[in-house]
Write a structure and sequence with these properties.
Distance between the termini: 46 Å
Number of helices: 10
CATH class of the largest domain: Alpha Beta
Shape: globular
Number of strands: 11
CATH topology of the largest domain: Rossmann fold
Strand order of the largest sheet: 6-5-4-7-8-11
Strand content: 15-25%
CATH superfamily of the largest domain: von Willebrand factor, type A domain
Oligomer: single chain
Radius of gyration: 21 Å
């Protein structure tokens, strides 16, 4: 947290409550996590099929096209017709959809409309409603960096959503504290044995603790599950402090920072973190979307979740 030396005291913090998260159900109507090529999948590099493992129903066979997964080739039809053919599948409804909420204390930060923790709650709530309204079963794993992650097995309809929303409200940080660098890795390790092949995993995090262990954990998930990354960002993180003197740090460990002198190193560190996240998304062909604290979730997420036709 930072404060400028001439700044007045901060106003009251507007943290999401259960009523607000329940109300996001209205914004979820007409949206889908089943789009053949959802706009949410702002992919880096080439796209592997996101439909993996069980949770699929056979639909038809068609001639093989460039970019199709070679593992889906129907060899009997290929031999019979003399040219490669591939199997097409469609996702079963009522597949498990898991929300992984990396709600560590470092998310109690924001320079615009909301804290990153509030952004996570609002995005998670909207995605939860989209999942159950689309016929899926919702599960969640909530990591706050201080206790073992809370686990909610997949359930359908409101019974799957309301306990998760209530737990998110309870777990959100309410004061500045030391970021828990390992919370995402702990959450991924806890989630892995709970997943069924074909599950959809939505990872909401600022990825501040991204390291080799994170990459290894995602490497074990992606061959069997559809995994999508939603990265939480803030304008001040990208730009660094403007010119001026600031007191920065935790309440009991504040130090002075010169905005002009620290800006270059700040921006370089931010760019390196984002490049590593982009490289991770490309390596595993994971859809990656960045959500910003300056945006209204109910306005920015819906356009990314509307059904879109497959574009070859």
């Amino acid at each position: 947290m930072c404060e400028r030396t001439s700044a007045a005291g901060a106003g009251p913090v507007n943290l999401p409550d259960l009523a607000e998260l329940v109300a996001l159900r209205g914004a979820a109507h007409g949206l889908s996590l089943h789009a053949h090529r959802p706009a949410l999948a702002q992919l880096q590099g080439s796209h592997r099929s996101a439909q993996r493992g069980r949770g699929l129903e056979f639909e038809e066979v068609r001639p093989y096209a460039a970019g199709d997964d070679a593992r889906a080739i129907d060899w009997r039809v290929t031999a019979r017709r003399g040219r490669p053919h591939t199997k097409l599948f469609r996702e079963e409804r009522e597949r498990p959809v898991w929300l992984l909420a990396d709600l560590h204390p470092g998310l109690y930060f924001g320079s615009r409309r909301q804290f990153k923790s509030a952004l996570l709650l609002r995005a998670a709530a909207l995605l939860a409603w989209v999942a159950v309204l689309g016929g899926d079963r919702l599960g969640a794993l909530i990591a706050d960096g201080r206790e073992p992650p809370r686990i909610f097995p997949p359930r359908g309809r409101e019974a799957g959503v309301l306990p998760v929303l209530d737990a998110l409200v309870e777990a959100q940080p309410r004061a500045p504290a030391e970021p828990a660098a390992d919370s995402l890795n702990i959450a991924l390790d806890a989630l892995r044995p709970l997943l069924q092949p074909g599950s959809l995993v939505l990872v909401l995090s600022d990825f501040s603790g991204l390291d080799e262990r994170t990459e290894a954990a995602l490497a074990t998930l992606t061959p069997h599950c559809d995994c999508r990354l939603l990265a939480l960002t803030d304008p001040l993180e990208r730009s660094g402090l403007p010119p001026g003197l600031y007191r920065a740090g935790l309440p009991d460990r504040l130090s002075w920072l010169d905005g002009a002198r620290s800006q270059r190193a700040w921006q370089d560190k931010w760019a390196a973190r984002q490049q590593r996240l982009d490289a991770l998304a490309r390596r595993f062909a994971l859809p990656l979307t960045r959500l910003d604290t300056a945006d209204v979730v109910a306005e920015t997420l819906p356009p990314l979740l509307r059904e879109t036709a497959w574009v070859a």
